[in-house]
Design brief:
There is one protein chain. By secondary structure, this protein is α+β, with helices and mostly antiparallel strands. The chain folds into 2 domains: 2-119 and 260-278, 3-Layer(aba) Sandwich (Rossmann fold); 122-255, Probable inorganic polyphosphate/atp-NAD kinase, domain 2 (Tumour Suppressor Smad4). It has helices at residues 12-26, 66-76, 102-110, 183-186, 270-278, and strands spanning 2-8, 30-36, 59-64, 83-87, 116-119, 122-128, 131-138, 141-146, 153-159, 162-169, 171-175, 198-204, 214-217, 222-226, 233-237, 241-245, 249-255, 260-263. The strands form 4 sheets. It has a 6-stranded antiparallel beta sheet with strand order 7-6-17-14-9-10. Strands 13-12-11-8-15-16 form a 6-stranded antiparallel beta sheet, with no helix packed on it. It has a 4-stranded parallel beta sheet with strand order 2-1-3-4, sandwiched between helices. The relative contact order is 0.17.
């Protein structure tokens, strides 16, 4: 018997559709494992429970927005379980299909008539005094953010142990190509196609206007350290979990060994989705 997971947003309409989808799948002799997406919490990653998706799932449907999808990705962990997003949220880039197309695509999945495309993830290690405080994998981005009343963060940044620059800014974003259309884009970063093997370094409101976003190969390791005067600084992982950091911490970001496998939807192309989400008309303004 097939087993399929459903991760659903805490929303009446999404839960109702999840009920319908679960019944539809069970009528086709598919076992269903269902999980409601919890709200993001500012907790230390090492204090979280090791809840993970069953390893025998053939795929996971995510009914919600980008936040729900990122929650599902954390549930998958390092496993190669294919995942498909169904839009039940605000404007986002991770939900591939609309509610109206759900059953047509679900029928193909039940019949094993689907393909997947890998999306790179980042592995983020936080070390203090030679001890590993946290090791997290993210699909979109890892973000250094200062508190509302804190002074500018001062962030030393190196690439493969070669000094790059010291950012004085409200924060710093390191994003994957998938995450280039999320917080990084809002902070002035470039849109990067998911197949491009790269990482983006985007400062948030930099004090020096010459500090611009940088694109680096996905083969490098990015090392970040805070200056001693920096305080009230938070490191967040895909906006799902957070960790307070200070000048004692060394943050290393590199390409993770386990990509996420996103189900490809027939006749749906990246640039069509991009134009629709960003409302590019193609004509004169």
């Amino acid at each position: 018997m097939k087993r399929i997971g459903i991760v659903v947003k805490s929303d009446f309409r999404a839960r109702k559709k999840a009920d319908e989808l679960e019944q539809w799948l069970r009528e086709r002799d598919v076992d269903v494992v269902r999980k409601e997406s919890p709200p993001p919490r500012g907790v230390r990653p090492e204090n979280q429970t090791s809840d993970s998706a069953p390893d025998d799932l053939c795929c996971i449907f995510v009914l919600g927005g980008d936040g729900t999808f990122l929650s599902a990705v954390r549930w998958i962990g390092d496993q190669a379980i294919p995942v498909l997003g169904v839009k039940f949220g605000a404007v986002g880039f991770l939900a591939d299909i609309a509610e109206s197309n759900l059953y047509a695509v679900a029928d193909l999945i039940v019949k094993n008539q689907f393909t997947t495309r890998p999306r790179m993830r980042l592995l983020v290690d936080v070390v203090r005094g030679g001890q590993l405080r946290a090791s997290e994998t993210v699909l979109n981005d890892v973000v250094i953010n200062k508190g509302a009343l804190a002074r500018l963060a001062t962030i030393d940044t190196s690439i493969d142990e070669q000094y790059l620059t010291t950012y004085r800014a409200d924060g710093l974003i390191i994003a994957t190509p998938t995450g280039s259309t999320a917080y990084s884009l809002a902070a002035g970063g470039p849109v990067v196609h998911p197949d491009v093997p790269a990482m983006m370094i985007t400062p948030i409101c930099p004090f020096t206007l010459t500090n611009r976003p940088v694109i680096v190969p996905d083969t490098v390791a990015i090392t970040i350290r805070l200056k001693k005067q920096s305080s009230d600084i938070m490191l967040t992982f895909d906006g799902q979990a957070g960790l307070e950091i200070d000048a004692q911490d060394t943050i290393t970001v590199r390409k993770g060994p386990h990509p996420i496998h996103m189900i490809s939807v027939p006749d749906q192309h990246y640039f069509d989705v991009l134009k629709a989400k960003l409302r590019w008309s193609g004509g004169r303004v």
